[in-house]
């Protein structure tokens, strides 16, 4: 009889720990946001994908960059893919990056990048996260390490990934 009770309790415990009731959980990656938090600047059916590598822009939103070329909006999963586009010799207008804190796009000139922190990067081993507020960048750096730098320097580091 004791065995039967144990079996019943085991079943109840198992049911109690069943799958999450919310099937719409977002990816556990640091870069990911909920779709309603993301700003997608491209148009057309591929607006949710990186203009270079095709990766999902909501999944890699916190490292997303954007720019204009030939009157068209391009959005990238990362500064890596922006640099990949620049590598073709094009001039990209109005480059922007997502501010990790507000999740809004800001001009790259106003961004403080934390480069090489412990947080995983997108398309690179040396992660780069941008903040509009320098104190937020310093706070992030205090927690996860890395170096605070401007866009030009962060782009130089991104270029390193293309040298093999
Ligand atoms: Zn990409």
Task: Show the helix and strand layout.
Layout: H1 2-16, E1 65-69, E2 72-76, H2 79-86, E3 93-98, E4 105-107, E5 112-115, E6 128-131, H3 134-144, E7 147-149, H4 151-160
Antiparallel strand pairs: 1-2, 1-3, 3-4, 5-6, 5-7
The structure holds zinc ion.
Residues 50, 52-53, 55, 76-78, 81, 123 line the site of zinc ion.
Give keywords:
164 residues, alpha+beta, three-stranded antiparallel β-sheet, 4 helices, binds zinc ion, N2O_reductase_NosL, NosL family protein
Strand order of the largest sheet: 2-1-3-4
Q: How many helical elements?
A: 4
Structural class: alpha+beta
Kindly report the oligomeric state of this protein.
single chain
Q: Uncertain regions: pLDDT < 50 for 5+ in a row?
A: none
- What does the radius of gyration come to? 21 Å
Specify the helix fraction band: 25-40%
Shape: globular
Average per-residue pLDDT, rounded, comes to 90
Order of helices and strands: HEEHEEEEHEH
Overall structural domain count: 1
Small molecules (ligands, ions, cofactors) in the structure: zinc ion
Number of strands: 7
**Whole-Å distance between the termini?**
69 Å
Major sheet: 4 strands, antiparallel
- The share of residues in extended strands comes to 15-25%
Short description:
With 164 residues, this protein is α+β, with helices and mostly antiparallel strands. Helices cover 27% and strands 18% of the residues. It has helices spanning 2-16, 79-86, 134-144, 151-160, and strands at residues 65-69, 72-76, 93-98, 105-107, 112-115, 128-131, 147-149.
């Amino acid at each position: 009889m004791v065995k039967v009770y144990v079996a019943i309790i085991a079943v109840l415990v198992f049911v109690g720990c069943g799958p999450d009731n919310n099937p719409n959980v977002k990816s556990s990656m640091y870069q990911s946001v909920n779709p309603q938090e993301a700003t997608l600047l491209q148009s057309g059916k591929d607006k949710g994908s990186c203009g270079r590598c095709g990766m999902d822009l909501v999944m890699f939103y916190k490292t997303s960059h954007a720019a204009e070329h030939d009157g068209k909006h391009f959005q990238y999963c990362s500064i890596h893919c922006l640099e990949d586009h620049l590598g073709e010799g094009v001039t990209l207008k109005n480059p922007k990056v997502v501010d990790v804190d507000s999740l809004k796009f800001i001009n790259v000139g106003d961004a403080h990048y934390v480069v090489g922190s412990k947080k995983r990067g997108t398309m690179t081993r040396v992660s780069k996260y941008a903040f509009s507020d320098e104190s937020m960048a310093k706070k992030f750096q205090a927690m996860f390490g890395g170096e605070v730098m401007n866009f030009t320097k962060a782009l130089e580091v991104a270029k390193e990934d293309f040298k093999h």
